[in-house]
Design goal:
The protein is an alpha+beta fold. It contains 18 helices and 33 strands. Among the domains are: 2-42 and 81-93 and 557-759, no CATH class; 143-171 and 248-417, Calcium-transporting ATPase, cytoplasmic transduction domain A (Distorted Sandwich), CATH 2.70.150.10. The strands form eight sheets. Strands 1, 2, 3, 22, 23, 24 and 25 form a seven-stranded antiparallel β-sheet that branches. Strands 15-10-9-11-21-12-19 form a seven-stranded antiparallel β-sheet. Strands 28-29-30-31-32-33 form a six-stranded antiparallel β-sheet, with helices on both faces. It is globular and about 130 Å long. It is found in: Membrane.
Amino acid sequence: KVFFYFQIQACSRSTDEHRKKALERVTELGLSGLRTLVYSTRQVTRDEYYSLLRERRQAMKQFGEARVQALNASNERIESGLELLAVTGVEDTLQPGVNECLESLKAAGIKASLKVAYPKASNILLAKMRCCPRLRNKADASIRHVYANGLQSVEPVTLEPADNFVDNRIVSSRYTWWNFIFLNLYEQFHFVSNFTFLSLSFLYLFAQGAISAFAYVVPFLISLFITIVKEGVYDIFRHRRDRRVNNKRFSVLEFDTNNNRLVWTERTASSLRVGQIVRCVADQEIPCDLVLLASDGCKREVRLTTANLDGETSVKTHYAMNKTFKNYGKILSMFPNDMELDDVTQFKPLLVEVTYEAPHADLNRFEGNLITSTSQGTENLVPILIENLVLRGAVVHSTGGILGLVVYTGVDTKLSMNSKKRGRKYSSREDKLNFVLTLFLVTSILLCATGTILATVWNKQRSNVPWFVSARPPTRFSYVRLFISFAFIANFLVPVSLIITIELQMLVNSYLITHDPEFFDPERGLGGSANSVHLADELGQIEFLFSDKTGTLTLNQMVFKACSILCDDGIYVFDGDEVRHLKSESGQPYVRVTEMQQSNVWSVGSALPVHLMEFLTVVALCHTVETRSSADEEDVSFEATSPDEKALVEGAAKYGIVLSSTNRYPEVEGGRRLVLQRNPTNDMNRTTTEEYFVDATVEFDSNRKRMTVLVRHPDGTFHIHSKGAESKLLEVQVSSMVELLCLFSLKTFLSSPLAGSKQVYPLSTS
């Protein structure tokens, strides 16, 4: 089994003795080969809490570099002064057959390594590297301004359609009917073999070879013809796939201001334009990038899978804009019926105006604002969050229907901008063959030059011309003809039959891959498919195999396993239905967890220590997990993009702090209402329900390496919780002693995701 441990450090109010204990706990987990995570707390005033919220919301309304700088400043204020508090752990299990796979890889001559950081527990085995596609286009500095269906105002009716943006056609094919021959020939003669054969065919105009030109040129033309036909057939398949994608039909909501009607029309995906309002249903792929206006149900939730974008198969939850959900939700519920309006002024609640950034390839960033009008006639900017955006390629999952405003189409979509440029792909076999044939060509030229020189010398030394024949001195062209004659002989180093054989074997191999019954999965009805004949070229050429441990070599089914709270001695280990409290023997610091002595044990349902329950409350609040209730509304399941977060929330629920509900609340865009059920003894008569409000979430990113939530507690206090990587979290800690302790733990083990929190108290009214 693989253990992933998360640690929690002590707060700055702790004594030096507590800090010493923190060092011991971190080191003990490190010696056991465990990874760490940290939670923290800090006390501030109520005014500062709301000041932080206002500063963040104001920063969200800006664009470009000003937005980035404002958000960085806001995040720094929110996360400054965090004080470390305590420590937790998650356990994962290796996939069956991993060790057997390692042995078979080594037996095949493939280098495979296994790093063991804990006895009988593999920390790192193989790593699978995913290359991020190169960003093709730099983001334009301009800001887009779009109205829904181009309707700017109704009194008077003013239309401003967005006609200056690209269409939504998807083109993955490489050729058209008019450039196929020319472009394909240009690509074919990039191969050294074809260039060599063409050059030798051209030399037959100046000299006679050992074989006739017909016997040499015809096989070369046959080889070229086979390759051209092969490329043409595969490009026809690409055209067909493009037509299937572009001809998918979607329902579009249109405003008929002349007849005061809301009309549903059917349009193909290729005809969609920026500013239109598109309806998508369950199991349907999103045709372009959309800002969510409404969804079925009352929670504004849109559940998606993004395997086509980031390879993740987990279900993600996005949300419709709160300002548009009510009005457009009514229209969505009446589909497919058109709506008759009394007059043109009834279009006013449906006016949608958005400003947003130019297209770019970053899948995790979107800057935009929804512009609404207040009762005083002033504009109000509502930030459009990344959770309000759905991207082309995502698939709607178990959601009845959604309405979205088109913001990016065609090549401007994030999926297209992350795709590689279309062009001729050369397999590794072709690259190696070109290199080898280049060496043969250079060798042939050297042999021909050597042969020409030696033949000239031999002719001069052994020329025995009769006296009655007038001898003519050799001309320059005679030397060229001699060189060409030797070239005809040397060309057999690269026989044309070799190229024909390679082309035919690739066709046969691709056919065998496609029709191999061993590749067929009867459960899903899917089999192998060689979309390119060059696929077979890449088989059997692996030198190094890298794979990450989470979800690839493990089952990705993590379990909350341990925690250590620094205001208490020892480590709490969650072992099934028991919670065991472990301590190291006196005078023996820095020992492995497995070598500690058990000091106490509690069964699930018994009263756990108060400070442990308080910490589990923080765990149940600091996350982005969503709840799902079954039909009988008794069982609650959790969904999260991170299996670590899910494991922590499930662990807190098992031991008495149950996250029973997560809902959006309309007062704050992006805000969440979390309902916790506190039942430490599993006695239903003693269960208490508490509501917590998350006013803002600073999401995890690769630079900050931490996430933060701002939470209002039911007792009137205000809290900020944060979790992230140790290297970044240490930058916002108060105590230099705590930083020293964490740096010491960093030397003990490789990587440690951490967490932090802080409490914000209201102003005293006295």
